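anyone seen this seq b4? input:
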Amino acid sequence: MSLTLDWLKKYQWPATLLTGHPLAIAHRGASDYAPENTLKAFQTAADLCSEMWELDVRLSADGVCVVSHDDNLTRVAGRGLKVSEATWAEINSLRLPEGQHIPRLEEVIELAAHTGCGLYIEIKGEGAGPVAWRLLQEAGFTFATLASFCVPWMHELRALGCKYPLGVLVPAGAEPMAYLDGLDAEIVHLCWRDASAAPHELLTPELLAKLADTQIVIWDEDRAAVLDGLWGKPLLGICSNRPELLKPYPAGQPIEIVCHRGANWLAPENTLEAARICLDQRFQYVELDVRTTKDGALVVVHDANLLRTTGFNGLVIDHTFEEIQTLDAGGWFRDGAAGYRVPTLVDFLALARGKAGVYIEIKHADPAALLKVVNDAGMLDTVFFWGADIDGLRWLRAQSDDILLMAPRWLYGTVSEAANAYNAQIIEFDVEKDDPDQLSGELEQCRELGLRSMIFSKRRGWNDLVDCLSHAPDMVNLDHPDRFKILAAYPLVRQHFARVIP
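predicted toks r here
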């Protein structure tokens, strides 16, 4: 069953969900980027424009509806306390990584109402369903569904008169209609991630025909090939620990997106993980900074001093690559990112090759050494360069007219001066440094001169990104490409969230 306005009205879900795309359902929140089932994970999911959050609920010994996947809290909290045997006071005293705590359902409902997100509540414990239903009603919160692997619990809710859409999670190997056991469920949630190497192929026309009268939700998924196989299916939603993947940047968009230091608000800047998040969303370029170690290795790191991003107080140029490789480049960012390393340029290019281009900012590196690495990777046509060393850029230009170079507009008196400094093909306009009143005219000058224009912005506000989009540059270099992606390619999703998320 495709999502329709009548269906949304029946269950009092927002009409703005009629976007033509499966709903992005953040699995236990954006749980790859924050501790699962915590307020931080749910807020991160909202910031990534996930329409719904999947969460798990159980009852404590004193009847509080607790948001936790496991009954035993050892895995998430490091203590063998059981939700079903502990009081809320005992559970609430536990502290999770990143300053988080195990929330009550009421807290999550309040946050969901504030952010405009819906709740996909999986009932994990006996008796939690009726309590969750009551809490939703008391809060006047309608954008929700209640679901469980345990079909008798769903029968109980239906018999009690629950008017929320009910869902059944179907394990791998089970025939969905038989598993429903006669329940008139509105949602069938196929938990088939591990059913095969290509679980999307199990969604045959015959199966979809059998489920034509229900909405279908798909297992937690982050594999590009499987997601490609799911697009176009009649699905209510797809779950993922990485919900940003559920709205990839479509091919053919007129504006190419450059990710400044990678996905630097989701992962430690300039790491392979920060790049991978961008590549998986199918952005066109990843920006990185290159420096040289004491023994001549080219490494990807922004600052001359390693202190900010590794905790080690020392200069890159004073230490060997082997020494720098022992440093933790992720722990400074958040607890869950500890263990990432400072990558080499070679490793970075190998990751990006065939998937995206790379913008190399030359912080401290021999242009000849850089050029050799890029040539060896076979990526000269998908890499562009800039650096403060103008002589180095002029040396690169002297090697070939085909090498792609960028020039910042703010360093020069005019667009023409910027382009002519070393025959740059790309002119970057910085929203903090360039005159906004001249921007439209100067982007037009770029078009007349056959130059590509790029707007650089670290801002995340919708209105700021609308400004970037309205100027129609050839490229944008952003700290928040995930937001610009929604604005440029999924405007109806943006309409839903712009009302509540600044």
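The mean pLDDT is 96. The chain has 21 helices and 18 strands. kinda curious what u guys think
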